[in-house]
Every structure is written in C-alpha cells, then in structure tokens.
Amino acid sequence: MVKNYNDYPIAATNNAKKALRWRKEHGKEVKGGTIVGWTRANQLASRESLSPTTIARMASFARHRKNSSIDPQYAATPWKDRGHIAWLIWGGTAGVDWAIGKMEQIRKMLAHNRPQDKDMIDGIVSMLLQIKDLDNRLEVAMSQLAQFKRDGIPVNEEEFLKAVNVWSQELKEKDKDEYDLKKTKSPCWDGYKQDGYKIGSTGKRVPNCVKITYAEEGLKEIDGEIVYETKEEAISAAKEKGCKGYHEHEEDGNIWFMPCESHDEIKYKEDE
Fold first, then answer.
1. Domain contains 141
2. Which domain holds residue 34?
3. pLDDT for 72-82, tens place per residue?
C-alpha cells in the first residue's frame, strides 16, 4: 500500500494560505497558477496527506525557484506577480525544499526494503519523469545512479538515463542533436507551451503560448477530466470547481477518483 505524507512544514501551509487569501481578496487581479497548482494550495492549506507522485511534482517545481522573491515592480501589489503566486501555491521555498528531502527519504526507504527489486527501480524512473526540467532531472538521475552504486544495486547507466529521457555528458556528445531538441525550454508561463510565433500587440513577433493538455502535464485523464490517485486530492480539486465530494471511475482494474459527487455534476461545472 502506498504511504501518503502530511509532515510538511507549517510554513508551506502558510504560504499556500497566503496565496488563497490574496485570491479571495483580490479576485481576478490574481492571475498566477494553474488549476493543478491551486488544487495543491488547497491541499497544503488543509494539511491533507500527499502521495509520493504529488510530492515528486512539488520537488520538480524547484526549477522555478527564481520566483521565490517578489518582482520589485509588484512590491506594493505582490498578488499580481504571477511567478510568485505560482511559487506560493506549491508551498513556497519551505514546501519545495521539504518535497526534495522527502523524495530522497522515500528513495532510500525503497532501496533499503527492496534492493534488488525491479519494481523499485521502475518506481524511481516514474518519479524522475515527473521532473519536467531536463537539466534538473539529469542532476537528480546522476545522484540516484551514485546511490545505486553505494547500495550495491547493479544498474546499467545508459539504459537508466535513457529510461528517464536524459543524457549524461558522454551521451550528449553521442546523441547531440536529439539532446539539443529535448533541452529546448519554453518561454511561456507555467501550464502553457510554445506553439510557433504570432504578432504581438506591439507589432513584434512573440511566442504563441497555448495551454498544455492534462496528458502533457503528466496527469491522468478520463472523459476529458483529471482523475486522482486519492480521495483527498479529488475532494480538494472539487473545491476549486465549486462542487463537493468525489466519485469513482474504474479503468484497467484501477480505481481513480474524480472531483464532484457525480459525473454529470462535473460536466455541468465545466459548461458553466
């Protein structure tokens, strides 16, 4: 049975509550964050338990650490700083640092309990794939390989790195064109990706940013709606949608939890 965790610092909860309070007080002036991020804020504010997959997503948000400080132009109105809002709803520095440490703890626990278990390695690969920034993922993957070596676990480095879609320096030289393509970073906000260019309001060519689909965010989707691994995550997401509770969906023998008490209700909310 997968263990969930709620031992994150109170500072992470307070960061989420601050962003939620600003959103309530200033309404549409608060534009930062995606629906997934605001779901996370509600979870942290309510001290809900988080799954290892959710914690991995929090840890990967470290790539946005530059947003931990408020942009000087928003010193008097910090709720208008999109990047800072996004940082706060994922728990801020306290939450992201806790998630990084917790993932290391989970990794050590798995390695200690099942040192030769292929499922353990596959689980770590799955967690690493949650880290979207390739340089960050490579750094964590190389650290993991070093730990495998210290634990005496035989792992083929090249196969492991390719499984998590990153390249070591040696592989970068070997597959340079493919690496450079994967390393391209998007100039768009969180939750959006670049789809070519367009002419902006100033008449200059600017990136055309389009919303990333649920599947591209690494989220499970059924009938166009996000589903979650736990009831608690679904209930928290329901609050964002203006409904209560959850209902269940079964797919390939697995039970998934969807916000709102019925499928008709969540579809109605989407159409409002």
1. yes
2. 10-183
3. 999 999 999 99
Assess whether 20 and 136 both reside in one domain: yes
What is the number of residues in the chain? Answer: 272
Where the chain has pLDDT below 70, the residues are: 1-2, 110-118, 152-154, 166-207, 211-219, 268-272
The alpha helices in 67-191, defined as continuous H runs, are 82-89, 92-113, 118-128, 134-151, 157-163, 169-174, 176-183
Same domain? For 34 and 93 the reply is yes
Same domain, residue pair 160 and 73: yes
245: left (phi over 0), alpha (psi -120 to 50) or beta: left
Type of residue at 139? E
Domain shared by 179 and 190, yes or no: no
Bridge partners of residue 206, in order along the sequence: 198
What are the tokens at 200?
A: 């902006």
Distance (Å, whole) CA 202 – CA 12: 39
Q: Which bin fits 271, alpha (ψ -120 to 50), beta or left (φ > 0)?
A: alpha
pTM over 0.70: no
DSSP state letter for 250: E
136 and 173 part of one domain: yes
Cα separation, 189 vs 22, in Å, equals 20
The long-range contacts involving 91-94, CB below 8 angstroms and separated by at least 24 positions, are 91/8, 91/12, 91/13, 91/15, 91/16, 91/40, 91/44, 91/58, 92/11, 92/12, 92/15, 92/16, 92/68, 93/15, 93/65, 93/68, 94/8, 94/9, 94/11, 94/12, 94/15
pLDDT averaged over every residue in the chain: 79
Cβ atoms of residues 171 and 158 within 8 Å:
yes
Give percent above pLDDT 90 in the chain: 26
Is residue 24 in a domain?
yes
